[in-house]
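Posting here for the record, re: uridine-5'-diphosphate.
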Amino acid sequence: MKTVLITGGAGFIGSHLCDLFLKKGYRVLCLDNFITGSKASIEEHLSDKNFALVEHNITKPIHLSEDVDIILHFASPASPVDYLNYPIQTLKVGSLGTHNSLGLAKAKGARFLLASTSEVYGDPLVHPQTEEYWGNVNPVGPRGVYDEAKRFAEAITMAYHRVHKVDTKIVRIFNTYGPRMRLADGRAIPNFITQALKDNPITIYGDGSQTRSFCYVTDLIDGLFRLVNSGLNDPVNIGNPHELTLKELAEHIKRLTGSRSRIVFKPLPKDDPRQRQPDITLARENLKWLPKVPLEEGLSSTIEWFRKHIK
Ligand code: UDP
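Prediction output follows.
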């Protein structure tokens, strides 16, 4: 039986990775310090003998006695609201946390996957974003704590690959949504759904003409599994190229929830990217991966989950 260690395993994406690897017959070590992760996301696995919870802050060194075959480094605050609330933790988990995770991968001879982000492209001047684009990031702006931590994380991952020959992979994850996002994590989809279900005003920041491209979580997880098992070591975009404005997103959610909410406009946060869409040619050609879940279907499943969990 192979063992996978998932840092941030109790987070939104981490918990879906725990589900998948358990289902595929792996032993899963779920590491989290619960700054933004939640016990509820992994509760169903606590009694599974192939699952172990490691409560640890990965910015501190870690020693594990058991063998590990794969390390998936997903620990980090990932919502703009979270990384503004935890700027130092965000910088530390992206830098020290990645260093510790890579050190463990080297010691164990484990394959390593870094969860990077479309934020490495900043407010992109190239559209759609290909992996060759180096980005347009403000290092000292409010989002710099996340963007620069992830850029450093990519750099040290490539260094461990080149110097120590660790079999590393880097995924640049574009906006992802689905069940188990925190209701109050501050991102557009959880905010809009929560507001719509409560008939509260739906808050669009700016005039709503900025764009994003949203990928349903099961599609992302499928892409991640293919990437871990591939021979690729350079960064790969995983996301859904279906791009829409935030205003269109708000209108979809209002309609799908049958909400009576008004749409209101609030100030746009500093350095909020104007546009974002992944070019997924690399993943399509090398991983034979394509997102399958259309936005309406993914939003409907997410809304159903939120309905059950909203207080
Ligand atoms: N946004 C919004 N209303 C909200 C939350 C977010 O209009 O209540 C906007 C935000 O300004 C950004 C987009 O939605 O333009 C996506 O934001 P999110 O926080 O989901 O993630 P980002 O893509 O910026 O990392």
